Q: What sequence folds into this?
């Protein structure tokens, strides 16, 4: 039997744990898995691009568990009253190949993206950071703001979006956190001025230069999240040239990240090497650092194993027959063509 976590169950699970604890605990899980980086069988995601978006499969495995995520990115979906990004994923046993968990990952991906940003910022940003510029107030914005506020000490977020209704949504959703000051900016430059951390979470699939070199200030940490597929960037190339750049999985980031604009031998640092102490992170307080985040399958592995752990502990989810169960003979698949009869195919966890 496979445990199935649908959207209502994930919503209840996140609510039961709490968004803030979920983000912090998940950041720790991702951190622990990144420190095991050499143990994983890794590859860049498989992407199918169209004129309107992209659909991707993201696989990764260690010696005991295999995980994959199906995810899309369709910026125009909001005009159809649909989500820009949707996802689901599977965690399976390497020993048998059997699927252990089938889970919604749209909500969970938003959480894991913010948790990954948090993990990277803890390693790269100045520890005295207090002010963050948030460029883009879409689906990811609240998660980023809360992660950095509650777990990194950010107490002021200056938000800018080309859509003022999106920023109004951000302010409305975070009004229950009065200790976090949210300021509405009139432009990108207005938002970035005086920021310790700059987080970019825009959605347009375009070669954008949202952050330009003239906006940089000594000691900034740039958390570049939105540039995550070929033909989609957020940082001017010279911003990268003036910075120490960190990546998740370099072969994937070279194709999809902001560094796709640069020469193939432009130097970058693997984040996992910083976490295990093999490479330096920020080398001095005045240095500008960039986390060129595109999202990597290992982060989905982490969130799937965390969700499985929490769901089992809280006894939530649905047990489903995602693959045929052996009745008498494991070589007899034909018997499953005769109908299920009185077998109860779906049953809730007691």
A:
């Amino acid at each position: 039997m496979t445990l199935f976590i649908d959207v209502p169950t994930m919503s209840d699970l996140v609510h039961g744990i709490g968004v803030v604890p979920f983000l912090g605990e998940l950041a720790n899980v991702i951190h622990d898995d990144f420190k095991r980086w050499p143990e994983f069988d890794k590859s860049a995601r498989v992407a199918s691009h169209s004129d309107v978006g992209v659909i991707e499969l993201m696989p990764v495995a260690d010696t005991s568990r295999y995980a994959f995520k199906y995810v899309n990115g369709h910026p125009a979906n909001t005009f159809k009253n649909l989500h820009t990004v949707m996802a689901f994923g599977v965690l399976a046993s390497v020993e048998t190949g059997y699927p252990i968990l089938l889970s919604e990952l749209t909500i969970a991906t938003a959480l894991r993206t913010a948790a990954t940003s948090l993990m990277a910022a803890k390693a790269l940003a100045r520890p005295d950071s207090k002010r963050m510029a948030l460029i883009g107030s879409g689906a990811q914005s609240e998660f980023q703001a809360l992660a950095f506020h509650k777990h990194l000490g950010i107490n002021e977020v200056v938000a800018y979006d080309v859509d003022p209704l999106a920023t109004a949504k951000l302010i409305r959703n975070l009004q229950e956190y009065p200790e976090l000051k949210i300021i509405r900016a009139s432009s990108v430059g207005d938002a970035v001025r005086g920021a310790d951390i700059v987080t970019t979470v825009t959605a347009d699939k375009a070669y954008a230069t949202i952050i330009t070199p003239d906006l940089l200030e000594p000691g900034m940490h740039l958390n570049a999240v939105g540039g995550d597929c070929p033909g989609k960037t957020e940082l001017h190339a010279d911003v990268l040239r003036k910075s120490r750049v960190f990546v998740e999985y370099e072969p994937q980031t070279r194709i999809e990240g902001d560094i796709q604009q640069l020469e193939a031998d432009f130097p970058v640092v693997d984040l996992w090497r910083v976490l295990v102490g093999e490479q330096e992170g920020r080398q001095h307080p005045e240095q500008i650092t960039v986390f060129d985040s595109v999202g990597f399958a290992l982060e989905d592995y982490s969130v799937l194993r965390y969700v499985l752990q929490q769901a089992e502990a809280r006894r939530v989810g649905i047990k489903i027959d995602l693959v045929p169960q052996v009745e008498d003979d494991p070589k007899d698949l034909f018997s499953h063509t005769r109908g299920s009869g009185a077998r109860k195919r779906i049953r809730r966890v007691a």
The longest helix spans residues 106-124. The mean pLDDT is 95. The radius of gyration is 21 Å. The domain at 124-295 is CATH 3.40.50.720 (Rossmann fold).
